[in-house]
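**Fold tokens**
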Amino acid sequence: MNVQIKQSPYELGQTAGVEAACLIRQAIEEKGIANIILATGTSQFETLNRLINDEGIDWARVVMFHLDEYIGLPMTHAGSFRKYLQDRFLSKVGALKQVHLINGEADPAAECIRLGNAIAKHPVDVALVGIGENGHLAFNDPPADFVTEQPYIVVDLDEPCRNQQYGEGWFSSMNEVPRKAISMSIKQILKSKNIICSVPEERKATAVKNCLQLPVSNLHPASILQQHPACTVYLDINSAAFISPGFV
């Protein structure tokens, strides 16, 4: 795992986006196709902005999956991750080869099977992820399931996770935040050839320290990234505030 600290969320996102674009172009050059995973949330704003402005990517050769979606939330809701990706990514790039969005309004078990079958045919070249305030990776809240081989699973969202979603402004009240979601599993994320993890803001500083400097534990789910051979974690000076001197 490689850790880089940037001065601002903007610089963090720009650098992460440049790396992501390079890896996507490389996969297309080598295989004729690039399979990617996109994350959502405020941590991805600048990374996605840089990615969509890259003029060298042939999006018609890109297959996209995304990490998680609330169960029962319509795509028209401001908190929907399908809406997020449609508004902030899909509507701004050329038509992709395939898009596999998680339908949180479908039968959850059937949707997990559908997505699992799809991603099994598309080994992931580049995954963009973040770290939650509670240390979660995707919606795998602590204690996360490090064992399941299922690519997508139904998960319960804990209170810190739900509070983060409310605090970021996606919902008008805590009562409105769903309690269940469909999430890509930890093992499926780790199958990605390359992982780019973008984590800005001081509110993530405790989770960053726990996930990067403590031993790997499902109580700090994103700590599992320590074991990935090609993962780069991008921090800004605020999210890195509690990192021990000399760690990076």
Notes: The mean pLDDT is 96. The helical segments are 9-31, 45-52, 81-88, 108-120, 159-167, 186-190, 205-213. Residues 2-236 form a domain with the Rossmann fold fold (CATH 3.40.50.1360). The first helix runs from residue 9 to 31.
